[in-house]
Amino acid sequence: MATIPYPPAPELGRYADDPVDKPAAVSSAAAEPSPVSSSTASHAAKGSSDGDIEDWDSTVLSSSFTAKAPRKIYILHNDATGQTIVIDKSTLLGRKPSMDVPEGAKAEKVEDPTRTTSRNHAAISIDQNGTLWIEDYGSLNGTYIIRDGQEAQVLKGKPRELDAPATLRIGDQFFQLTERQ
């Protein structure tokens, strides 16, 4: 079976936004038929005065490539303080959490009148598959998942998978974790 070679890269100056110090010379390749459609070529020549993307080549991905899985959003609610925290991306929780979090994550302050929540107490993360995880950051008073009346401690450095609905104890603050419908 013969392999098909990759087509050569277009010569510099082919597109209007190419960085070129001098005009591109016309090569013998220019006399050959171009893989770019004539409507694209005329569009590139006239620029983007109509607000379209300059190098649009009329290729449209099928919906299976462009359709994204629905994003899940979770709610943490504390009845005692009335605080509600929206978990729509990976979230660092604490009494005074560091605002220096990675791009795509956020920090949320836990209202804690008893001061049993550590500054950077725990994090709830959502992985690429949409699975929810919780990890304790070495807090003094711990992080627990409560199911059927049983507390399971989340240990430092040992993320645990988390399913909603659940009850979380962060320090001595109890939060109900639910999925937003």
UniProtKB/TrEMBL annotation:
The keyword Phosphoprotein applies. Residues 91-145 form the FHA domain. Residues 1-10 have a biased composition (Pro residues). It comes from the Bacteria. Residues 1-55, 96-118 are annotated as: Disordered. This is FHA domain-containing protein. It comes from Bifidobacterium bifidum ATCC 29521 = JCM 1255 = DSM 20456. CDD domains: FHA. Pfam families: FHA. Gene3D superfamilies: 2.60.200.20. Residues 23-45 have a biased composition (Low complexity). Keywords: Phosphoprotein.
